[in-house]
Amino acid sequence: MTRFQFRSERRPRWGAAGAVLLIHFVLVAGLIRAFTPDIAAKAVRAVMQAVTVSLEPPSAPDPEPSPTIAPRRAPPKEEGAAGAPASKATPREVSAPRAAVVVRPTQAPQVADKGEENASGASGQGDGTGASGIAKGTGAGAVGTGGGGGGTGKPTVKIAGEISSAKDYPRASRELRIGASVVIDLSVGADGRVKGCRVVQHSPDSQADGITCTLAVKRFRFDPALDPRGSPIEAVYRWRQRWFY
Prior knowledge:
Subcellular location: Membrane
Domain TonB C-terminal: 166-237
Main location: membrane
Order of helices and strands: HHHEEEEEHEEHEEEE
Strand content: 15-25%
Number of strands: 11
Structural class: alpha+beta
Region (Disordered): 55-135
Oligomer: single chain
Protein name: Biopolymer transporter TonB
């Protein structure tokens, strides 16, 4: 038993030794910090400078060249075969049209005769209330004989006299003659007065036809027709009387 106790007393005491070392380290550190307060900061800076490594960002790799795509060529178009040569056109003979032959009528020489045109010496026309007239009669032609030479005459011209379709006819037969007309021929003397009347186109109202002749003889006055020599002549003057109301 005495042997066992001896061995236990000789075992080293590591815990106590570590505690002593720790106490000494703390005391030394405290002394250093007390007398040289910046030594620790200098040591830290020295260590940091020793281990400072400048890191630069890696350079970007060179871009890869893009592949060049060659343009596609369109397939060649098929060329058609040449057509057969065209046949030569043969011109057709065309005969020139025949020129039209214009035949001008030959005018016969004018002679003295009875005329019914406004330009003849015995023709004329006049205006009246609700009526108009065209004269015809005997007159000289364009060609004359005698000392004065040829020439044209002057037609008969109405200068006075009116017939009223509303006042000069009976009201009883008004419906019968409205829209109708009568045509009369008046014989005009060389003095310009009416010497006679004749109905050449009757109206539905025979009584109104007679009244028209009577009033024309009584009221109408004329400048007589003249022959190519300027002498007044007797002529026939045609008059149409219309009834509008």
